[in-house]
Specification:
10-stranded mixed beta sheet, homodimer, 4-stranded mixed beta sheet, alpha/beta
Amino acid sequence: MKQAVTVVGSVALDDIETDVSQKTDVVGGSAIYFSISGSFFSKIEMVGVAGTDFPKKTIEELKKYDIDLEGLKLQEGKTFKWGGRYHSGLQKRDTLYTHLNVFKNFSPNIPDNYKNTPYVFLGNIQPELQLSVLNQLESPEFVALDTMNLWINEKREKLMKVIKRSDLLIINDEELTDLTEERNIIKGVRSLHQEGIKYIIIKKGQHGAYLSHFSTSDQKDSSLFYSPAFPTPLPKDPTGAGDSFAGGFMGYLASCDEINFTNMKKALVYGNIMGSFSIEEFSIKKLLQIDKKDIEERYKKLRKISTI
Amino acid sequence: MKQAVTVVGSVALDDIETDVSQKTDVVGGSAIYFSISGSFFSKIEMVGVAGTDFPKKTIEELKKYDIDLEGLKLQEGKTFKWGGRYHSGLQKRDTLYTHLNVFKNFSPNIPDNYKNTPYVFLGNIQPELQLSVLNQLESPEFVALDTMNLWINEKREKLMKVIKRSDLLIINDEELTDLTEERNIIKGVRSLHQEGIKYIIIKKGQHGAYLSHFSTSDQKDSSLFYSPAFPTPLPKDPTGAGDSFAGGFMGYLASCDEINFTNMKKALVYGNIMGSFSIEEFSIKKLLQIDKKDIEERYKKLRKISTI
């Protein structure tokens, strides 16, 4: 049964530089990437804030998708801005600036209509805000969160509280090391499971992603799955890849009859697929060009690539 | 039908430093790692040179495996030595020194008994020596080669000759970039296939490996396969991982009835398995501790990790 997913995250106008291109004021933000990606599979309810400079054209575009915008607040002022420069090869990046703008006083207000939604994705925002979202919800069935080095280093205690109240943590390999002081993925994942989180996804960028499940009741039921990234020859802009991944993962999972490891494995592959589309153009351009058929085609190809 | 594989490569006594340990004069070299790994699947014929300081104990150990040592020359003098230091996390390393010693005037002399062997692995040695090996062989069915940045940068023309005469090139992602000036694996692999090589394996270290097949006659038959690395929580010394990988790959492939993409996919998984054992102890220690049952167990686990 197709369910809905509530996402809380950033809505942004990014400035992005790569070796070959430079773009200013392009639409971005975790909630945006997540929502479009996820809406191919389930209804997405977006919670976030945009400034009055956020393009109305984009709002109109989003309405064409299965995205509920009741939780998107439009506020007098400028939209959150992230400025970044990618190194040659697109695998490393430097943040040039972050202008919080209307995001500065953002306090997520969950519409009543969203409070019983079974699936929740807490995008990469301050742990306090993530906690405030959880406190507003009735009793979500499945909560996933993303985070970043800044919160790991500066708000670890609060972050651990969010993690303990969630079902799935989605982070990248560097963040895992920061969080656990373990460079080895297997050791790092194990120590996080000890903290009480059942599912962990480790994103490894161009290499793919691990999904780890730890069962406290039956350790033999604990499982590991790896899905390689879809090998695209045309990466242009990695911004939003992780959020597109999370959208594909959560959107697909919410469309399944139940939460089990087999469905989560498929969800991981869909996550990789959505990430691969996202990076092929700047901003959300590519995500707006594809349809369900394109997604299914890549899913089949990626399955073939990773199956003996 | 189980076939034999001839390997030509280095025999070494390495000095290895990691964060937690320092070892001097430990047995290493591409031919050594390759032979032990490969011998779990097929007969391996080793061609190389060792100095009189090479431990007799190791020679005796090798004899317990399905390894033919007729092509291993023992020469007055010191064995080839590589000294290296691994960075914290074991993912990067610096070469501290290379003492060629008896390897300096090494000219591979293929025993008559090896000249009709159908499978050949040209370890990472000078392209001229790789060519001289090919010139001594009757008509091998399947030739694979490894190489390194030094030969890519300094002996590109000769190296390209070897590549054109081979069926499979096994390199890592950095070497692919050096060879093709492409950072994108898919583009790099494509441009190498254009040079006429049918199969390419791209090793991505801890992330796993790609196998790419390009069919000139039927491009629809071209295929890609990805196998993640076996996730070991206990890496100690990555030295020889790539050669253990190659040994597992070639050894398994030679044990198959025919060379086809399905068998090569399985061979890639066995390659990853042998690499994962190799790194769990310094030198060849772990490889000497395992048996076929350990290998099959990991094979099953890795298949499970990567299969939906």
